[in-house]
Write the structure tokens for this entry.
Amino acid sequence: MTEDTTKAGGAKPRQSRTGLTSTGARKASAKSNRSRAREFALQALYQHLVGRNDPTDIDHFTRDLAGFHKADAAHYDALLHGSIDNAEQLDALIRPLLDRKFEEISPIEHAVMWIGVYEFQNCPDVPWRVVLNECIELAKEFGGTDGHKYVNAVLNGLAPQLRPLEVEADRASGKAKA
């Protein structure tokens, strides 16, 4: 038996790209410190949305989790506290693009959309396509089966409003769909 087959005799899926697991998710070693910050912020925002836990308590708990030292702590702080502090404004931007009530949206997808909108508005050093891709990856890894498609539709709909010059430049150059 070769190392590319399982004990049952079936072929083991090969990774087509380095840094990916067999399911297509990025391996932990392939993640940037900002990607890790987004993951920890997502976990913290989930605690806020589901448990209505105090942001300071959530923050202390999250910082004690394994691997937090590899995350960009400043970016995590901005995402967590910025999203919670601006939740009403973020929801007001997201709401018109929804086809259902917020109560019917998964808390994971809700938190991912908060992260995306917050970054669109407050992190001009992160290109809008990177924000969109990172949020899609978060939704794929932590959300429901097709939650990433919903996140993609909402954030892609908001990008021209929140990053108009950048989106238009990408469209003009062919980097983004018109």
Observations:
- The radius of gyration is 18 Å.
- Residues 33-51 form the longest helix (19 residues).
